[in-house]
Every structure is written in structure tokens, then in C-alpha cells.
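name: query_chain
kind: protein
chains: 1
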Amino acid sequence: MAYQTLDVRVPGGSLRVGQWGNGPAVIVAAHGASATHLHFEALADQLGEEVTVLAPDLRGRGRSRAVGGPYGIARHADDLIAVMDHAGITETLAVGHSLGAFVAVAAAVRHPGRVRDLVLVDGGLPLAERPSAPDVPAAEALRAVGGPAAQRLGMTFPSQQAYLDFWRQHPALTADWNDYIEHAYGYDLAGSPPELASSVREEVVLGDIAELRDGHGVERALGQLTCPAVLVRAPVFIDPQQPPMYSDTAVAAGRQLAPQLGDVLVPGVNHYTIVLTSRGAGAVADVIRGRLRARDAGDALG
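structure:
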């Protein structure tokens, strides 16, 4: 699989963008709150060379860590459009995982016509079933919901192996550990031994999450959505003892705001492995290919 990185100028600095494939079909992808573009490596492999995947490190993460503010969902959405402009793309299918799904929705609403189709992976809909009391500090709420992924933002590690060992014990990843996971979290490291740390800036994540805790902006954006959209969701969040990001009830509520919303439940995955394993990424790739075929058929009829 062809892979390269490029840098795209945006207000505040340069975004690092990963690019896979060489095909005429081009999609843009936005990762989760404390992830990087390498969380889409498995998806790119599943899509193959015929699809070009452009995935930035969102500002405040990865090699976009130093990009300045303002931050927030709208800024990330505008950054996706900047990536499209850099690549000379007029319109595209946008994929978002977790926080990235909210970013993709915002891009479609803020830039009508530029995002023609949406594939939302375990994100993008109101989080009413995962409430967080407004009087709980944002950092405390993040750690309560994010678990080890949030905990590691305040930690240092003596080596890359120590960092990978930390992730290997994550309950969402232990059973499905693979090279995609190692690549994604190995790339995430910043600094030098023995003071290695995640490249993800906690204050940027907290600002992004604060918008989602409000909820009203998410509902407003989804209600303004006009393009086709499909939610691809996991049946569990981290383990079977926890509720999923989105239940059937949550999907029904989402459809009240966006009646065109499709729904695909992927068995045997969680919120992480839906993108970090071949099984999960393969299911997402199937949905993307279906949406690309539908778009091509519509263009032919038009």
C-alpha cells in the first residue's frame, strides 16, 4: 500500500496529513479525540490502492501538535476543507471516527457541497446516553469516560516499549493486539527517553470534549445535515459490561434529527477495534465502497 505524508498550511501552523493509495476516488478522514491519522491505516489497507485516503493529524495531536489555536470542532472541520483544497478536491466523502465523526458532520454543515457523503464511525450523534454532569470538571469527566486513553495524557514513559505495554493492557485492545495498534501508538509518542509522552495535548482535547458535553451544538448540526450519512457502530464501548456509544434508542433519536441517517452495526468489535483491526476496518470499508458506488451511479444517472 502506497503511503506518504504531506504538510498543509492552516491558520496557526501546518497540519501533518497521511495519504494512502493512488486511486481516483478520494476520501478525507478525521480521527478520534486522542488519536492520530495512523488510526486509519487498517481502513486504508482494506480500501486498497483504488481509493486515496487523506487523514490529517488534527491540530494538537501527532505531528500537528504545535499548531496553534483556535481549536474546537468548527476549526477542525475547516481544517478538513483546507486539506481538500490542498489536494485540489472539490467534493468528497468524509469519514470520521469518534470525535472525528462530529468534525465530519460540522464540515458538511459549514461547507455545503464540499462534503457529499458521510460515514460516521461510532460518533457524530448526540451523546445523551453517556451523560456527564455539568458541575464535574472537564478533566475528571474525560478520565471517567476515556479511561486509560485519557489517563496516559498526564504520564511519561521511559521507552516506546513501555508505552506500547501500557496500551497492550487496555481492555479494549488486549484480545486484538496487532501491528496496526502498534503503529498507531508508536507514532503517537513525542519527546525523548526516558521522558516520552503522548503527542496529544490534553488541553486541546478538553476543549473539544467540552463542546460535546454541551450537546446543543451537536443536535443543531445534525438537524442541519442535508447530505447522506451512515452510522457504523460497535455493540460495546470498551467491554460488554459498558453500554455502547450508541444504542438502538440513540440511533432512533438521531434519525429524528437527520432522517436520512443509515445504520450499520458491526458485531465483535468495540469503540477502538472498529478501526484498529482488519475485521472492524473491513466493515467500515464495505460501507464506504457502497457509498462510493451509489455516488457514481447517481452521477451517471444525472
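note: The first helix runs from residue 41 to 47.
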